[in-house]
Amino acid sequence: MNAREKILARISEAKPDKAALSHHLENHPRGPQPMDFDDLKKRFAERALKLSSDLVEADQLNLAPGLIANYLQQRTLPMKGVCWPALNHLPWLDSGLDIEARPAWNEDMVGITGTFCAIAETGTLLLLGGEKTPASVSLLPETHVAIVDPKRIVATMEDAWDLLRRECREPPRTVNFISGPSRTADIEQTVTLGAHGPYRVLLVLAP
Amino acid sequence: MQNASLDFKRQVTVKLADEKLQQALSRLQSRFVEGRSAVISEIHDLQETRDAATRIRDRVLNNLGHWLLHFEEQATKRGAVVHWAETAEDANRIVVEIAKQHDVKTAAKSKSMVSEECGLNDALENAGVKVVETDLGEYILQQAHEAPSHIVAPVVHKNKEEISDLFANVHGLPRKTGIAELCREAREVLRPAFLNADMGISGANFLIAETGSALIVTNEGNGRLVTTLPRVHVAITGIEKVVPTLEDASTLLRLLPRSATGQSITNYVSMLTGKKKETDPEGPDHFHIVLLDNGRSSLLGTPMQEMLRCIRCGACMNHCPVYQNIGGHAYGWVYPGPMGSILTPLLDGIEKAPDLPNASTLCGACAVVCPVKIPLPDLLRKLREKQLALGLRPRQETALLGIWSWLALHPRAYALATRIAVRAMKVVGGKEGLLHRLPGASGWTDGRDFPAPEGKTFREMYRERS
Asked: Is pLDDT above 80 for B188?
């Protein structure tokens, strides 16, 4: 017997009721859910700010680069960086931004992404890695800018899973829920923003 | 990791006298205990959520074989390789073989208590692989050659000044004093480790059977880096970590970070499924998942099975009056506090940790805060019974308990014996009514006097009243 067989043989289990177990898989029932949120966008914004993210709102997607340029300028951050190839069509140059569409490298200081959806309950973003949405863009640069479509703010993580099941055949290699800038409290349990990931996260709500 | 639980009693004395440690522990108590209580009430039906989480874990444990096989099937479909390790040594051998197979020279690691359990770093270093811990706390410990003292906040026992000295010494840079500066320095020193590593090693908080994924909760972003940048990713975790569906994971995720660090959600919740696809611009070419048994399967179907529900939040130790006073190192192995006092004897041998099940007042705080309702005091009591049955307790204690249990089963003898005992104790207690020494109870009387009874038993007084 190999290790796998030995471990499985040691596992004393009741004879599985296969029908019940596959029923659970197919129906994937939810646990207790939070109470309904009156206004998903408002709740999302409140929670995101609490997580130390910054937030601006654009009337339309084409105006997002201008708001991002303002944000970077105000904080004297570099006006150049990388974006998801999926966002290459936005007018970056017109807003004075030098943005390359590719995965991030270590030198990149600003990374601009979209979001698959956002979650009101916790103020969280859901990003899926892929050909046009490389995960490194939200990870390596010190500033992460995420464009969020307000129509794609859902109430809970469970709603996000349903959206994922509906729109993707299977989860991609990386599925990342992001809730604010990276942080650590390892030294004296004191929360410090900017550990190995971004120091700041700007959310741009844009339809 | 070598188990040093046999040294528990001596360590307790050392830790209680360690002022720096005492200060550090009071910090932990205020941040984690108050932090939890501030956010746990965000869950409006907390008890139902805990019940649901308990059912999820029990569903898995009652059919663990079924769910593991389903997980393996789904993970394999997506190009992951699933390995099964019976013991810590087997897990180390498997990871070393993976490293050799892919010609790995350096590995970057995010925090994994299972890898600590195995002593994986030493095994890899012995095989010529350079391992860099990248979680800030674990990195500090690696530089200081120390073991974690908490499963969530591994370096809770060290203060800022010690870390400043350590960094100045190890990095050869000007000594920093601010916490933010120290974090910045570690980030800059560690970045190349992520970029140059051939292999990334992570744990897995949950394995999702539905999708064959490994899910990790992190705050620093190092978990994302080690699972995204290196060309090989190894996730190592216990066989009990599987959950059936994404929804099941979500229910547990409402409780895990709130119970652990007082966060509504950790900064990152990352789900990793399969190896990189042809169209993916990044991600590992190889994804290996190592499932460690190391004694876990032997608990299934026994009265100790409930311990396997544990999701490693650390709330039991944060709230334990014993842990709060002695810290994690005294426990001698990877898992401290109430969960460790149960896991260490169960996984590493009951004879190797004789003091741990007794290092509890059974106050019950741990059971109250446990998100998956593990009856920790009951399990500690069961272990004590087992110790007694195996003859692992001191002879005097065993004899006294034997006498007490015989008396408890013989009410008349009990009444007589207690009548004699309280009268004798009253006489010995003298005018001040205090006993300075009691045979068999020196653990009490060494530190304080025992108040002498007033001369009558409860039953005598009760009879007089009626």
From this structure: yes
Domain spanning B42-297: CATH superfamily: NagB/RpiA/CoA transferase-like (3.40.50.10420)
Closest chain B residue to the Cα of A6, Cα to Cα:
B86
**Those residues with Cβ within 8 angstroms of residue A103's Cβ, 6 or more apart along the chain or in another chain:** A82, A134, A136, A137, B281, B282
- Distance, in Å, from the CA atom of A100 to the CA atom of A81, rounded to the nearest integer, reads 6
Separation CA B126–CA B266 (nearest Å): 34
User: Would you tell me the crossing angle of helices B411-429 and B458-465 to the nearest 10 degrees?
Assistant: 100
Going by their DSSP bridges, the two strands A110-113 and A143-148 should be labelled as parallel
What contacts 24+ positions apart, CB below 8 Å, involve A48-51? A48/A123, A48/A180, A48/A203, A49/A123, A50/A123, A51/A122, A51/A123, A51/A179, A51/A180
A182/B220 touch (CB, cutoff 8 Å), yes or no: yes
Task: Break chain B into its structural domains and give their ranges.
Answer: 1-39+314-393, 42-297, 395-465
- Beta strand A143-148 with A200-205: parallel, antiparallel or unpaired? parallel
Structure tokens at B188: 């800059």
Q: Which residues, 6+ apart, have CB-to-CB distance to B255 below 8 Å?
A: B43, B49, B50, B53, B311, B313, B371, B372
Cα separation, B252 vs A158, in Å, equals: 12
Q: Which of B201, B74, B70 minimizes the C-alpha distance to B133? A: B201
Q: Tell me the C-alpha distance between B202 and B107, whole Å.
A: 10
For A:70-109, CB contacts with B below 8 A are 102-103, 106
- Report the b/e string of A88-113 with b at 16+ CB within 10 A: eebebeebebebebbbbeeebbbbbb
Give the helix/strand (H/E) hosting B180: helix B179-196
pLDDT tens, B361-374? 999 999 999 999 99
Whole-number CA gyration radius for chain A = 20
Q: What is the pLDDT of residues B48-80, one digit of tens each?
A: 999 999 999 999 999 999 999 999 999 999 999
Q: CA A25, CA B246: separation in Å to the nearest integer?
A: 9
Contact between B197 and B232 under an 8 Å Cβ cutoff? The reply is: no
Give which of B380, B107, B368, B74 is closest to B210, Cα–Cα: B74
The CA distance from B433 to the nearest CA of chain A, in Å, is 46
Chain-chain contact of B183 with A195 (C-beta, under 8 angstroms): yes
All structural domains of chain A, each given as residue ranges with its CATH number in brackets, are 57-182+192-207 (3.40.50.10420)
